[in-house]
C-alpha cells in the first residue's frame, strides 16, 4: 500500500506495514527461522537464508526508510555494526572528515580499527564551517556528521556541510541518533546516508541493541547490503519486532522527551549549583538558529557541569539520583544519567576530550517521559547532596 501522507505520526504506524497475508494479523509476525524451503534450487519466495533476508526485518527496514524520507533501509545487529559497514565503503588511502565531538565508540572504531588499515580521519569542530572547509580536500571520500553531537550537543549545519562534502564527491553520512527522524530528516538536507543507533529513541524501551542505515541511493544500498550480508552483523527477527513496536509510539514519546527536556534545561540553568548547561533550545546556544532551521524541536538530551567544576562534586551528584538511573545509553522512556568521561567517551584520550571541551566534570542527562515534577524533585535532591 502506497501512502500519500508525509506525516510521521501516520508513517510510524503504517509505512511498509501490511496485515500478514496468511492470517490477517495486524502486527508483523516474528519470522523466527534460519532458512526457507525452496521448491527447486533457486526457486523460492524471495527468501533463502535468514542472514540475507528476513520478512520481519524487511518490514522494519521499509518503515525506517519511510520515516527518514528515503528509499532504502538496512538494519544491523548494533549501531557499531552500521558504522562498521559505512567505513567499509572506503579504501586504504581515503580520508574522512568527522566532527571532533562525537560518540566515543565511533571515535574508537575510526582510530583503533580502521586507521591502521590506512584510512585517515580528520576530526574538526563542524559547528565552524570554515574549519570544515579547510579540512575537506580532494582526498576526502567521506564526511561524518553527528548532530546534535554527543555529549556537548553542538549543532552542525547539515545542509552547508553536505554541500562542502559533495563539492569533492564525498559520501555524506549523518548520525541522527540524538534526534530521531521525528526531529530532523538529514536526507532532505543533503545526507547520502542516515545512521541510527536504533537502541536509543527509535526503539525507546531499553530492551534492544540495533543499528540502522537509510539511503536513497540504489548504488549505496546495494554496496551496503553486500557488506551487511557478507559480514553478517544482522539483527534477529525478535529484535526487529521490538523496534517495530517501539516505533509506533515514537511521536508521542518524542513529544514528552522534548517537553520534559525544555523544563529541565531551564531549571538547571537557574540553579545556583549548576555551571554550564548544554541544550540546543537556548537562544545563546551556539548555532541555535541552525537548530531552529533543521530540527522540529530540541530533544531530551542535556549536558551540564556543576558550578564547582570538580569531578568529586559530579560523582556526588551521580550517586544521589534516584529516578535518573546511572547507566550507559539514552533515549529510553526512563530517565538516565551518565558521566561521559568514564562511560560513553572513555575510549577518547583525556587530552583530546579536554581539548574538544569535554571536561571530566560533565554530566549527561537522557530525560525520560516520567512526570516532570518527579524528575525535578529528583534532580533537586541530588544537587542538595553536592557539598562543594
Which key phrases capture this entry?
388 residues; alpha/beta; Aspartate Aminotransferase, domain 2; Aspartate Aminotransferase, domain 1; 2 domains; seven-stranded mixed sheet; five-stranded mixed sheet; 14 helices
Radius of gyration: 21 Å
Order of helices and strands: HHEHEHEHEHEHEEHHHEHEHEEHEH
Mean pLDDT: 95
Poorly predicted segments: none
- Count of DSSP H/I helices: 14
As for the number of domains, it is: 2
Q: Identify the CATH class of the largest domain.
A: Alpha Beta
User: What structural category characterises the helix and strand content?
Assistant: alpha/beta
Total DSSP E strands: 12
CATH superfamily placement of the largest domain: Type I PLP-dependent aspartate aminotransferase-like (Major domain)
Helical fraction equals 25-40%
Backbone shape: globular
Strand portion, in percent? 5-15%
The span between the termini is 61 Å
CATH fold name of the largest domain:
Aspartate Aminotransferase, domain 2
Strand order in the largest sheet: 1-7-6-5-4-2-3
